[in-house]
Amino acid sequence: MGTSKRSSKRVVVKRHTRTKPQLEKKRAQKRIEKDFWQMPFMIGEQLHTNNIEEINKGPLQGEEKWDFTELEDHLSKLKMKHNGCNLFVFSTNEPSSLVIGGTPQVISLPVMNIIICDSGNGNITPPELVSIKRSQLGSEVIKTFKEMKLKWVRSPQIDNLYYLNCLQRRESLRKKPVMVQHEYEYSLLFTMKPELDWTLDNKGKLSVTNAMFQYRKEDGEVIEEMFDKENGDRLSSFIPDFIERHEIDGDDSELYDAVHQAIKTAFEKVRREKEKRKELLSSYPENVLNNMKVVKIYPQNDFVTQKHKSHYVNPYYGKAHEVV
Question: Which stretches within the chain are classed as H helix?
Answer without folding.
Answer: 20-33, 51-57, 71-81, 145-148, 170-173, 178-185, 194-197, 235-245, 252-280, 286-291
